[in-house]
Amino acid sequence: MTWLIVSREIREFYRDGRFLFGAGLIVVLFVTAFLVGFEQRKNVFSEREVAQQLDYDDWVNQPERHPHDAAHQGMHVFKPIPPLSFVDPGITNYVGSTQWLQAHRQTEVKFRPAQDATGLQRFGSLTPAWIIQMLGPLLIIVLGFNSFSGEREQGTLRQLISLGVPSWKLLVGKALALFLGALLLLAPLLMLAFWIAFGDVQAGDRYDVLIRLGLLVLGYLVYLGIYIFMVLTVSVLTPASRISLVVLLAVWIAGTILAPRVLVDVARMVYPTPNQVEFNAQLNQELRKEYTKAWKEHFGVEDRWGTDVPLSRWGEALQVDDQAGYNAIDRHFGALWNRYDDQQRLQEFFGFVFPMLSVRSYSMAITATDFSHHRDFAVSAEQHRRLMQNLISSELVEHADGQGEHHFDYKVSKAFWSRIPPFEYAAPSVLFALQRSLNSFAIMCATLLFSFVFALLSSRKLV
Amino acid sequence: MLKANDVTKNFNSHIALNNVSLSVTEGQIYCLLGANGAGKTTLINHFLGFLKPTSGEVLVNGKNVMNYPLETKRDIAYIPENVMLYGVLTGLENLEYFSALATGRKKPKDLLMKLLTDVGLRPEDAVRRVSTYSKGMRQKVGIAIAMAKNAKALLLDEPTSGLDPKAANEFSLLLKKAAENGVAVFTTTHDLFHAKETGSRIGIMRSGSMLAEFSSDDVSHTDMETIYLKNMRD
Ligand SMILES: Nc1ncnc2c1ncn2[C@@H]1O[C@H](COP(=O)(O)OP(=O)(O)OP(=O)(O)O)[C@@H](O)[C@H]1O
Ligand SMILES: [Mg+2]
How much is the ipTM here? Predict the structure, then answer.
């Protein structure tokens, strides 16, 4: 019985041309988005691999020189591009993808506060994720706004009810029909992503990508499911299709255009983050305190890098200075990043009302393009920087400090450079993504359940 | 089979039904006569559970319509004044859909086609979209839907409105056949002559009240005319 209803609904979508028009438009957009995203990704992908290799070659081929000079030159590391970032680039385009590992301090280029983890998502670009998040609900509205109100106007609703069709079956049948429409919308995503997963990714990553794809589809179906029941509820409750359409378009605008922007600002108000100048000022102040304390403890001097500490202890001083800084850096960046997390969580929470907020963060987590993934990379790069610094300062302590006044004449042999390994970053597995997306997924499921129950209750009295 | 016990229905201050009682047994054809606004459709809507009586009760096969909304609907087939169908589907597809929903299983195409031609729809019309149909053609599809349901009771609200005389006649025959098979038929009409011809029992209603009820065999044509005119005149 339910399938009868489903097939009639679909026949109607198809015959009155709405479906072909809507889906056709979306497929065209999809293909465009994919091709653009994929092309970009391919370019950047190869560029980055080459660049990182060249940079390391430069490092290894340095002439014999004082290692601290080398540390100032530093090393560039490149963030790998997650395979599914072409589906949802997340914050990829807003945070730097390169990190300069150099002496003395963690670089903050990629944390320009104008690009903090949440503010970035203000504007969409033509990506598959954007299409599903924005246009998916719109397609469902176009297909479903009159599913009940239209039948009421047409008079067929009474006919159906008089036949003894239970209203919940009507609801489920109509929901399933819209669901199939949604699936059709996701089909191009699945196919193309599948193709890429098997064409482009290294064999080892394939399962990881496949699991992510599955999770992505699941999440988006839950998201679209929320809209399906919302659309059906409005269609039951409004007396005329025209009104239903107006109400639903208002809901759509509020949920996909206004809410995401407004809540970014709300999150910032609730959890303010410093701008770059403020952040740097605070960090520097803190660093100065730590440095002064460390120099005083170790060398009993007030002046950092003053003449009171002989050159025979310069390497040791570097070690002390670096170590003193690490804590302050960790604390400061940690606090900033936790703030971003708080902002993110607050927005996710509003997914109860505006599902786009939770699906957005779910999608970014699953495609490994959200802030937590970026943070993981940044931490790992910073560890590599510390590895480099520590190796260099111990080299200085062992060999250069002994030369006393001639400390700066010390030059390491070329063999030393390759003792610092190339930066190899293992991107977190899907488990990490799962953990990060659990919250938003739970919120979406709860909202889906709520909207289903609400639709069910409101459909009890149809005529 | 169909029973109304002291049904009163108020729309705000307006009394649409005033203590109406009637009963339609198996094999009976009950014709309800009444001017526009008498309350005929309102009464039918009570049998369908679309309206809740202000007082009194409505029973189908002994079950209260309000308490058993789905079960009671299973026993009745309904043809409204204006049969409403899906415009983008053909007459045949509409019949296929509604009859499958009513009975829970799809009927074969040729059987459905026969049902449609039986009520006087031409086969070439049956495969056209309903949006191109005339009122009478839609009515015929509605009749076919009701027949396909094989229900124990038929609720008909001016079912022949829009039908040409030939089709109306054939429809009367269909009703009689159904009644012979033990179906309880309840139909409203403005057509005195038609009521006398097909009905086994006739009720006359005005302003929500049942004024008179009698067996069609008990009265002659002229008697009926007198009764009707007397009761309809203000
Ligand atoms: N939903 C409603 N709200 C308010 N009044 C109503 C409603 N439905 C019917 N009425 C009123 O109840 C009275 C009976 O209406 P009803 O439709 O039952 O008449 P009828 O006998 O079927 O007339 P017709 O021969 O024109 O079909 C009318 O006065 C009508 O205005
Ligand atoms: Mg009427």
Answer: 0.90
